[in-house]
Amino acid sequence: MLIEEIMRNLDHNRSADVSVSGAKGSGKSMTGLSICSQIDEGFDLNKQMCFTLADYKDALFRLKPKKPILLDETGTDISGTSNRASLSGDNRRMSDIWQLNRPFRIPTIMITLDFSRVDLRIRGAFPFQVTPVAQLSDEDTNGNGLAVECICTKTVQNMDGSEKRVGFKYGNKPVKSIIFPLPDASLIREYNKIRQEAADRLLEEFEI
User: Which terminus of the chain has a smaller tally of CB atoms within 10 A, N or C?
Assistant: First the structure.
């Protein structure tokens, strides 16, 4: 459902960026990986996952259309998109890049602890919002494997030009939540490895 809307937006040169926010351990990283791997079966963490805005900008101009970028742990001072840095030139340039991203047709899947901490200009560029609410066992999914249950909303425009967030619908029926299956175990292992390497580099940089 969400994936179909993302692909439809990409086909029509509309923004298809997704924010995935939630507490530590809620399953947001696995949800982000699941979304990326569903958009792109050949999703390559080494080329399509970023931890800094500098890496993000490089990937944006390097990747082909419809290749998602996973921007991990955004909303912190390290990522450069927090409200505390909202007046910085980097944030202004970054929001401009996101607003002009449509012709690239490269969806950004942004993982953050708290979407409200992300700079307001950047928040406005993300039409889809995903919040994990439960991690599901194989038993919970009736034998269909591990998954994450999420509340999903999207930003729509009112007749007067204002915007509001609404839930998804299946036909005319509101959808309470969407289930995202966990990606392949090898992708999860690779994600954990790359993420740990990034954390180690950060510790070295700050001499912690």
Answer: C
